[in-house]
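seq as requested:
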Amino acid sequence: MSYFRFIWKSNSGFTFFSMVFIALFQVMILYLVTTFDTQAMLKSVLEQMPPRLKIFLDDAFFSTLTFDGAAAFGFNHPIVLALLAIVAITIPVKHISREIESGTMELMLSQPFSRKSLVWKLWLSACVILGMIILVASLSSILAVQIFHQLHVDVLIKIIYISLNIFLLFILVMTYTLFAAVSTKGGGFSGSLSAMITLILYLLFFVGKLWDPMEVTLHFNIFNYYQPQNIMLGNGSIFRDTGILTGLTIILLVLSWHRFDRRDIP
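struct tokens:
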């Protein structure tokens, strides 16, 4: 518990900022959809686009023109994803790589708990922090739906599914950052590497959606297993996506335990 308090105090500022920003962002998107006739404004634009681009934009963006689509888009906006990625990447880098670089890790490992225990507690702490941010985002989305529209049971269930989906996605991002942190030298290299991998996967997801020769890469892209619009429209494969994201996370967590337990701390 004392280690979790240490992790929380070290990251509480940006965590609170992320909670407030994402919560207000969710409300703002749903307010705008109910205030302006965006569907009529952009319908003609969509009809003039090439078929493949039209299908992609309809799934990824123009579905937000409906109220349910906007509720899903609040979880899929690049700003929201960027904030969650920063949290997921920062925690392992700060508490593994930076502490190795500063020499603090040697002092921590002199305490009466194992290296595997330290990795496990750090991973759980990061899960709790990410979970808190996503929980606040979910509650704000549910509240906004109730205020500006009408909350039905099926919409509530879909928001819960989306929340679980985005939670598992960024737990995976955090876990491969953890693996990079325990596998590389101290400093910011592991954070830069993880951020680069995440950004490349995000961009390749869009390329795979738009360009036929790259479509096969979608099967190996973690963002292909997070599509909130599909969940909201009833086209998502929540069990497949949950299984793949959870399986990759478990594998990387076990590898992180094993690697950190055997590495030398300078």
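The chain has eleven helices and no strands.
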